Amino acid sequence: GDLVDFYNTEGPFATDGGRETALAMGAVMEQLSKVIAPHSLYLIGNHELYNWPREALLSGVPWQGGNDGSSSSSGRVHFCPSGQQNFWHSFCPQPGWRCVVLDPYDVSIYRKGRILDRAAPNNYDLDQESVQLLCDKNENIRKYVAKHPGENILLNYWEGIEPHDLRGRWSPVNGGIGKEQLQWLEDELKSSYARGEKVIVFTHVLVHPQTSDGKTLIWNFDEVLGLLQSEIGSTVQLVISGHRHSGGFHTDELGIHYVVMESPLNTQPH
Question: What is the reported pTM?
Fold first, then answer.
């Protein structure tokens, strides 16, 4: 997740129809395409929804390499299998193992993604149920929305909230797992449990509080953990996330490892 930055949608780029976003994507993918691997997995993060409409992400995002898009290298980034209407899916990389991919922005103010031909701060058709949920959970957001109805919600979401306070998860940078996806996850775990498969779970937003400072958790992380730490979840070996740039790691009492990958933004350029 988070292949390109939010700033490709601001200032002079806000009404460019996504051109700056496309150039940034090309620059990133030109490097990632050099990685030799049998399978590449791309997850939906908040920055994907900042930059593209959900429909475009579902169908796959084309890219062209080079700073001006003139490179001969090109391709398409797929965030889910072709023709699918949801980002959550699973696949079997080899016999005995199953990868389960979640969409932590299934419930999110940015669920619909970016409106490419509309200028900030109105370049998102915000999901109003999610906006109301955040207003109910976060006083800073409630006050902002009252003064800026319909606008993108940009402020210090965590003012007055101490580090590691789990209330910090109630911000637009995170999202939740909806009821349909939760049922799908339960069904996937049941099937893998019955087949004796070992499971790796992928989700951009974090699942376990011990890997987070409270600001980077799935809104309903407790419901997700409830499934992962249940009997049918005993097949889960590993949960891999991004989102928290500094990374993190925790092994719970059941032996499930929660790995948060560090962001390349934190590395020194070579």
Answer: 0.93
